[in-house]
Amino acid sequence: MMQSNSELSPQFKARAAGGLWLLCIISGMAGFVVGAPLIVANDATATAANILAKESLYRLGFAFDLISGASYLVTTVFIYFVLKPAGRSLSMFAAFFGLAGVAIGGVTWVSRLALLVLLHGDQYLSAFTTSQLQAMAMTALKLQLQVFSIGMVFFGVQCISIGYLVARSTFIPRVLGVLLTIGGTCYVIVSFANFLVPSFGPHLVPFLMPVALIGEGALSLWLLVKGVNVQRWNEQASLDR
Predict the structure, then answer these.
(1) Which has the closest alpha carbon to 193: 157, 152, 160, 164?
(2) Helices (H) and strands (E) in the chain, counts
(3) Whole-number Cα distances in Å, 55 to 36, 42, 60, 61, 62
(4) 221 near 18, Cβ under 8 Å?
(5) Model confidence over 147-193: pLDDT tens digits?
(6) Model's pTM, two decimal places?
């Protein structure tokens, strides 16, 4: 019989979390690289033409995003168990925000599929002109970007919480927690900037997003390669009981 999650070693949980987190980062970036060139800002006709001409790329980007979301869903579960000794309640709080962020991400996936349905213009959509369908598709795309920003707020809060837990733990280097806390703060700042000042928010992305990725990447690599100090993990876990 397979071991339950509670029976798995902390080292296995840590390395699984690190590997899945890296998969989430890589697949998310791949999805962006594949899909972003197809989008022409505020030009529904050009965007529609690009997507229909390179639909396989659009669908590949969608698949990468699904992989990213699914891998992070499992990452959240493993991270909860890895960091529970550093703070059971806060670890649960972080997991809730992570799962909520993935759920919100699911809404963006629906919007991306809706875009394809509209652009294909099947018979039941014949009441609408091509221009109207393209405009609705662009609206679905805009909605996806707005909802994505909401999800990033939840993800940012989760990163801040995880960073704090790592910093107060005795089994993972605290500097990694500090880096992740800074990274999570960057996510939250960019998201709220996009809401409050849409003309300014995107200008922050090239400066703040790399900082956030450094925080995520550093912790995930450490967990994958080094894992946790098992002796100290067990000591802190015994104090949490």
Answers:
(1) 152
(2) 8, 0
(3) 13, 19, 8, 10, 10
(4) yes
(5) 988 999 999 999 999 999 999 999 999 999 999 999 999 999 999 99
(6) 0.90
**Of residues 153, 55, 148, the one with CA closest to residue 107:** 148
| Of 137, 148, 16, nearest in space to 77 by CA | 16
Largest Cα span, the chain: 68
In whole angstroms, what is the distance from residue 190 CA to residue 168 CA? 26
Q: Cβ contacts of residue 75 below 8 Å, gap of 6+?
A: 17, 20, 21, 24, 98
Taking a C-beta distance cutoff of 8 angstroms, is the pair 17, 79 a contact? Answer: yes
**Would you state the structure tokens that stand for residue 76, as one six-digit string?**
């959240």
Q: Spell out a b/e string for 92-124, using b for 16 or more CB atoms within 10 Å of the CB, else e.
A: ebbbbbbbbbbebbeebeebbebbbebbebeee
Residue 55: closest CA among 110, 119, 139 = 119
Whether 62 contacts 136, CB under 8 Å: no
Q: Which residue has the tokens 């000042």?
A: 197
